[in-house]
UniProtKB/TrEMBL annotation:
<dbReference type="InterPro" id="IPR025302">
    <property type="entry name" value="DrrA1/2-like_C"/>
</dbReference>
<protein>
    <submittedName>
        <fullName>ABC transporter ATP-binding protein</fullName>
    </submittedName>
</protein>
<keyword id="KW-0067">ATP-binding</keyword>
<dbReference type="GO" id="GO:0016887">
    <property type="term" value="F:ATP hydrolysis activity"/>
</dbReference>
<dbReference type="InterPro" id="IPR003439">
    <property type="entry name" value="ABC_transporter-like_ATP-bd"/>
</dbReference>
<dbReference type="GO" id="GO:0005524">
    <property type="term" value="F:ATP binding"/>
</dbReference>
<keyword id="KW-0813">Transport</keyword>
<dbReference type="InterPro" id="IPR003593">
    <property type="entry name" value="AAA+_ATPase"/>
</dbReference>
<dbReference type="Pfam" id="PF00005">
    <property type="entry name" value="ABC_tran"/>
</dbReference>
<comment type="similarity">
    <text>Belongs to the ABC transporter superfamily.</text>
</comment>
<feature type="domain" description="ABC transporter">
    <location>
        <begin position="2"/>
        <end position="232"/>
    </location>
</feature>
<dbReference type="InterPro" id="IPR027417">
    <property type="entry name" value="P-loop_NTPase"/>
</dbReference>
<dbReference type="Pfam" id="PF13732">
    <property type="entry name" value="DrrA1-3_C"/>
</dbReference>
<keyword id="KW-0547">Nucleotide-binding</keyword>
């Protein structure tokens, strides 16, 4: 659905995008992640045909964003990070206005606007003036606006920024519905946990470059050097630790609260082999499992990131997740 080839954008001499090669399959929810200034908005603006790249090419649904702008705009819905609303319109009028802009037949504009208000859970606000809506409601209205012409692809730039935890949850619910409708969604954020549970794949940007790309599990594996295992034995943890330290693919082993934490250099097959060996040695293994990597640590490792921002955002995202009950 989206493909870019060596896409570059310079603002004056500043390289905001450096040879970006992206590939996003149809029907995917793609999380575009990176710290402030990484180049996410620049990429999205180019894909939305609103900004010219300095060099390179980009296609949306097989259409060239530079030469087939009008056709591209027909199949995409773009929601910028900041957008204005016409304050003397009601929510319903606002959507009807945009439907008219897209040349949608007068007879069906109201029907579409009402359906969209329901989709974004704003049906009770149909007659409310848009400037009186809360930020979360405005964001959802903005999403409805991006959907009036039933686009195949949605490009959403930081749609959840500035929303309180409750509004974020509501926004996420709408995104789940869009995914069920089979839309392709590209959504940016600098908060990985916010997107990780929602996205089929993610791309991590850092200083204009794509530094990791794939499913959350793939990316974790890409940056993880080997794996960390937690082994609990019935007795003799010290002896087992020493035994493990001498095993070829074990990088290190230490004891933590009765458990042996083992770093191994290898994949699942190495993990299986190690378990077989312990059992063959008649070591009384009670449990043997991989310790999963914390998603924020993965992000920080990739981007060499800004811990302060991440810690703050993690608190928000955690509050958000706990709010889902
Ligand atoms: N119009 C512009 N003129 C000059 N520099 C710009 C312009 N727009 C963006 N930049 C610079 O390009 C870089 C990439 O910006 P961009 O907005 O694409 O990043 P981003 O990943 O979307 O960040 P954020 O999360 O803060 O929106 C930044 O260093 C930014 O300062």
């Amino acid at each position: 659905m989206i493909r870019t080839e060596n896409l570059c954008k310079h603002y004056g001499k500043f390289p905001a995008l450096k040879n970006l090669n992206l590939h996003i399959e149809k029907g995917t929810v793609f999380g575009f992640i990176g710290p402030n200034g990484a180049g996410k908005s620049t990429t999205m603006l180019i894909l939305a045909t609103l900004l010219k790249p300095t060099s390179g090419r980009a296609w949306v649904g097989g259409l060239d964003v530079m030469n087939q702008g009008e056709e591209v705009r027909r199949i995409i819905g773009y929601m910028p990070d900041f957008f204005g609303v016409y304050d003397n319109l009601t929510a319903l009028e606002y959507l009807e206005f945009y439907a008219a802009c897209y040349g949608i037949d007068k007879q069906i504009r109201r029907k579409i606007a009402l359906e969209l208000l329901e989709l974004v859970n704003l049906q009770d606000k149909r007659d409310a003036f848009v400037d009186g809506l809360s930020r979360g409601m405005k964001q959802r209205l903005g999403l409805a606006r991006a959907l009036v012409h039933d686009p195949e692809l949605l490009i959403l730039d930081e749609p959840a920024s500035g929303l309180d935890p409750r509004a974020r949850i509501e926004f996420r619910e709408v995104l789940k519905e869009l995914r069920e409708m089979g839309k392709t969604v590209m959504i940016s954020s600098h908060i990985l946990p916010e997107l990780a549970s929602l996205c089929d794949s993610i791309g991590v940007m850092e200083q204009g470059e794509l530094v990791a790309n794939g499913s959350v599990a793939d990316i974790t594996a890409q940056i993880q050097q080997g794996r960390t295992l937690e082994v609990r034995v019935l007795h003799g943890a010290d002896t087992v630790k020493q035994y493990l330290e001498k095993t070829a693919y074990v990088l290190s082993a230490h004891i933590e609260e009765n458990k042996i934490i083992v770093k191994v250099n290898g994949d699942e097959s190495v993990q299986a082999e190690l378990l077989q060996e312990l059992v063959a040695q008649k070591i009384p293994v009670v449990s043997f499992s991989e310790i999963s990597v914390n998603i924020e640590d993965v992000f920080l490792q990739i981007t060499g990131g800004n811990r302060e921002v991440m810690e703050h955002e993690t608190v928000v995202a955690t509050m958000d997740q706990s709010g889902t009950g």
